[in-house]
# Entry
Amino acid sequence: MATYLTPGVYLQEKNAFPNSFVAVPTAVSAFVGYTEKASRDNKPLKNIPTRITSMAEYHQFFGKGPDIKYKVKNDPAKKFVLEEIHETKYYLYNSLRLFFANGGSTCYIISVGSYKDKIDRDELMEGIRILQKKSEPALLVIPDAVGLDEQDCYSVQATMLKHCGSDMKNRFALLDVFDGYKGQTTA
# Structure
């Protein structure tokens, strides 16, 4: 603020020190799910919360995304159509790609199995239990839960909500809609 002493002469105070705050991540996410591999320096990372800051680190410790298989069908009107072969779908990898592509910076990965495994309710719940040892995450995401049957998916999501609201009391759960890719119906 300027202080006028005489016409044309004024004093202006300046801070000798810059603002003393440091930016810290406010919403560290924790992703639980299935990965291609889970190892660091030949030590297994299965069921070990691992902090990463980029997709390059993810690839180094957890591998690449699952392979998607297609078959070609002849369609007289369109010449040919690619149809995805529906096997077990794993959503963790693409969720992380979107996380980092949209400005995400720091997250934890808890790999509960590999793409060779079938998605299992108990393994996902074990990942939630293991996460109780970490205080930093503020957001819990389990995209592979929608790969379960409907009842097991809701069971995992209920456990996520309990973990965030009752057990830890400092987290949010990000839930996917079971069969959310299907058209909406009114019943």
